Amino acid sequence: MPVYIWEGRTRQGTIKKGVMEATTDQVVMTHLRAQMILPLKVKPRPKDVMEYFPWLQPGPSIRDLVVFTRQFATMIDAGLPLVQCLEILSEQQPNKKFQEALRATKADVEQGSTFADSLRKHPKVFDELYVNLVQAGEIGGILDTILNRLAVHLEKADSLRRKVKGAMVYPVTVLVVAIGVLVLLLVKVIPVFEKMFSDFGGVLPGPTQMVVDISNFMQAYIGIFLVLAAVAIVSFGQARARFPKFRYHTDAAFLKAPVFGALLRKVAVARFSRTLGTMISSGVPILDALDIVARTAGNKVIERGLYNVRSAISEGKTMSEPLGEIGVFPGMVVQMINVGEQTGALDQMLSKIADFYDEEVDAAVDGLTALLEPLMMVFLGGSIGSILIAMYLPIFKIAENIK
């Protein structure tokens, strides 16, 4: 819907300015006159440069969603109408895509749609977890409570995601820097030494000759090597996106990886427990909650296992037994869930499991960083040191000949 910038004079003679979304400028003038404002100027708002390239505009971050959810909960709790809350928050939203989604949601609500159904039309902004919790809040008449609970869930999920990213970014960064330094030495520095040694003549020592051969290979095929590496990375990502079986097997391999596998399993347990606990405590039926948790698991092995758990529950079985068959959830977690089912406090038990595994993820990230840091330093120092020693061997030989 077009957005217009307007300027008008109130009955007291003061000049007011604002922005209004409407189908035509005549509609804007009608609204202004209804508010006892004499329209002086109404014109379409000029487009921002980024609006011409919508695919380049970033979507809302988790932080944007958390701030919106908390502000929305506060307004609902204060008794403001839903449409007014959406109007105020959309005007304050700096992210263009988020602002457009909120305006469209406001328009749908004004036309009679429920808040949850309006949010469901924007899956890139509001995921299924968000929409279903809002729906449960609307049905139960506790939308403000659900929104506050949802904001806490989003904050903890974002914190967990940042921890995992922090654990992955450091070793990858060091590894990329190490490889870049090695390639630079082999392509730019070693040829200078090679020319100097060829001017002196003689046979190069074995280690030196090997480094020179590697340098010649890199100079000849570095372009092809980079292209093949890029093609391999893109092909791997496309294969995971298009072939479910390939993604299932690679996800299984990730969970069994020697260094990162344990961390990924702990993250999976924490995410499952937090999400399922939040949904159950908010009144979402267990089968619907498991369906959503499975689809947002992010790992095909866990997703398939959770669907099996859902099928078992629909047949009248408990959750704990099929959950243990997935091979990802430790026995302690399965036993705690079993106790929660028997005592009728499953949501509280899941919350305790999530808190425990959040701390476990912290410890795993710290341990992983402490383990990888010296390994990366040894790899970088050992590689560069070996090249330098290989380059100095002929110099030592020349010095002996001179003596």
Quick tags:
three-stranded antiparallel beta sheet, 403 residues, 3 strands, mainly alpha, 74% helix, Receptor-associated Protein, 3 domains
Task: Please characterize this protein's 3D structure.
The chain has 403 residues and is mainly alpha-helical. It has three domains: 3-46; 59-155, Receptor-associated Protein; 167-284 and 327-403, no CATH class. The protein contains 15 helices and three strands. Strands 2-1-3 form a three-stranded antiparallel sheet, with helices on one face. Strand 1 and strand 2 form a beta hairpin. Helix 6 (128-140) packs antiparallel against helix 7 (143-200). The N and C termini lie far apart (87 Å).
**What level of helicity do the residues show?**
over 70%
- CA radius of gyration is 30 Å
Shape designation: flat
SSE ordering: EEHEHHHHHHHHHHHHHH
Give the tally of structural domains.
Answer: 3
Strand order of the largest sheet: 2-1-3
Largest sheet: 3 strands, antiparallel
Counting helices, strands and paired strands, the structural category is mainly alpha
Strand content: 5-15%
| Average predicted confidence as pLDDT | 83
Helix count equals 15
How many strand elements? Answer: 3
As residue ranges, the low-confidence spans are 49-56
